[in-house]
TrEMBL record:
Membrane topology label: Multi-pass membrane protein
Subcellular location: Cell membrane
Broad class of the protein's primary localization: membrane
Keywords recorded for this protein, A-Z: Cell membrane, Membrane, Transmembrane, Transmembrane helix, Transport
Protein name: Iron ABC transporter permease
Keyword presence, Mitochondrion: no
Recorded superkingdom: Bacteria
GO biological-process terms attached to the record: siderophore-iron import into cell
Entries under PANTHER family matching the protein: FE(3+) DICITRATE TRANSPORT SYSTEM PERMEASE PROTEIN FECC-RELATED, FERRIC ENTEROBACTIN TRANSPORT SYSTEM PERMEASE PROTEIN
GO cellular component terms listed in the entry, alphabetical order: plasma membrane
Family annotation (Pfam families): FecCD
Length: 331
């Protein structure tokens, strides 16, 4: 166990608790402490503030689930590709999910969360396979640099296809544009029940593959010598990452940078052991997404600023710093 793990875990749980209370209390209307307690622990109290708190509980739970899924997805993708800046949004997986969703809206008239999730998963899986295939071409196989370039090129091409499908159809544009920004505001108990099986499956696979993924971090030759089937392991771990990302993207829209930020923060604090990085990335991803959601509500009051905008605003400069640091190390 990493020496800082217990301290980081306790601090993270405290932060998560604070974020949960903030998510329940702040919004278009700020809820006082008494109303907050009534909404949580006194179902017989039917004041407006208490009812608002009860409505926000589903959004908060949904936000935790999305943040956890994206955090673990980022950890898996970074491990599978051995790329420190791998992330669903950077590798084009989010855009692939978006393309299939907009095609589903345009050509199959889908409009419910249960329909979105299957189209988004199909798009995410196909895009991940395509990016990995392109990145594996040429000498050296799937290097980190080639995967990022393949992801960036694929994302740009798919974004153009999204616009080509959407622009001639004004009704599709109205339905899609709210989803495209990325928001947890639509989270309810129905979407939570749809999301939960995918979250459980993805998390279990991630935790079960973590010890073997540690071996891959030492290099494919060493991992093979230790009895790890590197190709099969990468396929299984990548599948779990894509399922987590695709399900979250289907229900909340393409929210970027959560996996990148959560995994880097945890790796900096507790080290490279994926047996601890994966569960802590889930916890950290939930915290980051909830902080972003609360900030979006406060900044956009009396409305709200979508959480996808806030995470992009925070994540883009951090990505630049990480890239610059990696470049300096390479030199």
């Amino acid at each position: 166990m990493p020496k800082n793990f217990i301290k980081v875990f306790i601090l993270s749980m405290i932060l998560l608790g604070i974020c949960v209370l903030a998510s329940l209390a702040f919004g278009s209307r700020t809820i006082g402490w008494n109303e907050l307690m009534n909404g949580l622990f006194h179902p017989d109290v039917q004041t407006h503030g208490a009812n608002v708190v009860r409505q926000r509980i589903a959004r908060t739970v949904f936000c935790i689930m999305c943040g956890a899924a994206l955090g673990v997805s980022g950890a898996l993708m970074q491990s599978v590709t051995r790329n420190p800046i791998a992330d669903p949004s950077i590798l084009g997986v989010n855009t692939g999910a978006a393309l299939f969703v907009v095609c589903g809206i345009s050509f199959f008239s889908i409009g419910t969360a249960s329909q979105y999730i299957w189209f988004a998963l199909a798009g995410a899986i196909i895009t991940a396979i395509f990016v990995f295939g392109i990145g594996s071409m040429g000498s050296g196989g799937a290097t980190p640099l080639k995967l990022v370039l393949a992801g960036a090129a694929t994302s740009a091409a798919l974004s153009s296809l999204v616009m080509a499908v959407m622009i001639p159809r004004s009704n599709v544009m109205d339905q899609f544009r709210f989803w495209q920004v990325g928001s947890v505001g639509s989270g309810n108990w129905d979407s939570i029940s749809i999301f939960l099986p995918f979250l459980i499956v993805g998390m279990l696979i991630a935790l079960l593959t973590a010890p073997a993924l540690n071996a891959i971090a030492l290099g494919d030759e060493v991992a093979t010598g230790l009895g790890v089937r590197t190709g099969t392991l990468r396929l299984i771990a990548a599948f779990a990452g894509v399922v987590l990302c695709g399900a979250a993207t289907a229900l909340a829209g393409p929210i970027g940078f959560i996996g990148l930020l959560a995994t880097h923060v945890i790796r900096l604090l507790i080290g490279p052991d994926l047996r601890y990085i994966i569960p802590m990335s889930a916890l950290t991803g939930a915290i980051i997404l909830m902080i972003s959601d609360v900030c979006g509500r406060l900044l956009g009051s009396p409305g709200e600023l979508e959480v996808g905008v806030v995470t992009a605003f925070i994540g883009a400069p951090i990505l630049i710093l990480i890239t610059m640091k990696a470049k300096m190390r390479a030199l």
